Amino acid sequence: MRPQDSIDQPSTAVGTSSPRCYLVTGVLRPSSIATAVTRHALADGARVILTAPATTTALTEAQARRLGLTDPVMQWDAADPTSGAALANHLAELGITRLDGVLHAVAHTDMRLLGTLLPASLDDGLVERASNLERAFTISVASLASLAAGLRHLLKPGSSLLTLTFDSRHVHPGYGWMGPLKASLEATVRGLAVELGPAGVQVNALSLGPLRTPAAQAIPGFDQLAEAWSEHAALSWDPAQPEAAARTALALLAGALPATTGQVLCCDGGGGLTTR
Q1: What is the C-alpha end-to-end distance of the chain, expressed in Å?
Q2: DSSP letter at 20?
Q3: How far is the C-alpha of 252 from the C-alpha of 20, rounded, in Å?
Q4: What span, in angstroms and rounded, lies between the C-alpha atoms of 134 and 139?
Q5: Three-class DSSP labels, 233-263
Q6: What are the C-alpha distances in Å from 222 to residues 16, 156, 212, 216?
Q7: Which pLDDT value is given to residue 124?
Q8: Residue environment code for 128-153, b if the CB has 16+ CB neighbours within 10 A, otherwise e
Q9: Which segments of 92-174 are extended strands (E)?
Q10: How far is the CA of 87 from the CAs of 94, 142, 259, in angstroms?
Q11: Using CA atoms in the order 158, 184, 27, 20, what is the torsion angle rounded to 10 degrees?
């Protein structure tokens, strides 16, 4: 039997002696999308392991305590391509042999790469901008592949790798280089879906409507974008409520769509259906 023939029969299930085990990145504050996903996963009886780079471990540990997690926060740095292998070793020390779902919820760009793609002038630090863009690509895009590489032996038939994106079909004023970076992330999802498919692993991206997280608030014109999105959404969309996003993400992590991979699924209230 091929691995993908059994993807609708994961080895763990809520209510059994072996609850699902998820790895979640990006839990920094109560308003983080990853925090909401973790909260819903715990309510479903799952075991959740959080990760953080050394620079923000204290913030993640504070959220772990608030959520009632007992497992230690694992070190993983999206800027370090070798960090995934070290993370796998730490997980092995916890006795984890399988991850049912992995949420990649990290992105970063220098503030000067937001706003517009073109610099204000040719004297506007072009070399520095190029260096910042390379770092932004490593953290926001390439880290998905490096994380998958490090955890590959823990991703078994029925496992799900999920990342978060934002509407890349339109140009949004103020989003700057994050638009092309998210488009690159979505292309990476398709490539990984092909490469991990034979092992029965799903890889998808979840495109969310604008949510008021600390990172989003740094985007120039975010409030206007969120207001327009809510106004044009076919369904209601509240930028202050991440619950729909969390529930949708958890459904994908749990394998609720067992034959869906390499896709960008939308959870945005239908706000991305029309141009503004």
Answers
A1: 49
A2: -
A3: 13
A4: 9
A5: CCCCCCCCCCHHHHHHHHHHHCCCCCCCCCC
A6: 43, 39, 9, 7
A7: 73
A8: eeeebbeebbbbbbbbbbbbbebbbe
A9: 101-104, 160-165
A10: 11, 16, 28
A11: 0
Residue pointed to by tokens 């520095």:
128
**Of all helices (H) and strands (E), which one includes residue 22?**
strand 21-24
- Listed residue (37, 43, 63, 273) closest to 163, CA to CA: 37
Q: Which helix (H) or strand (E) holds 206?
A: strand 202-208
Cα separations in angstroms, 97 against 91, 114, 267: 8, 40, 31
Rounded average pLDDT per 10-residue block, the chain, 276 residues: 42 55 97 96 98 97 97 97 95 96 95 89 81 96 98 98 95 93 98 98 97 86 92 93 96 97 97 73
Nearest Cα neighbor of 109 from 10, 176, 190, 198 is: 176
Nearest to 49 by CA among 82, 2, 95: 95
For the chain, give percent helix, strand, coil, nearest 5. 45, 15, 45
pLDDT at 120: 79
pLDDT of residue 14: 38
What is the structure's pLDDT at 99?
Answer: 98
User: What is the model's pTM?
Assistant: 0.91
Q: Is 145 in contact with 106 (CB distance < 8 Å)?
A: no
The HSE-up count of residue 149 (CA atoms within 13 Å, CB side) is: 15
Q: How would you class 27 by CB atoms within 10 Å of its CB: exposed for 0-12, middle for 13-18, buried for 19 or more?
A: buried
Helices and strands of the chain, counted as H and E runs: 9, 7
Q: Is residue 4 within 8 Å of 157, Cβ to Cβ?
A: yes
Q: 125-132: which pairs have CB atoms within 8 A and are 24 or more residues apart? A: none
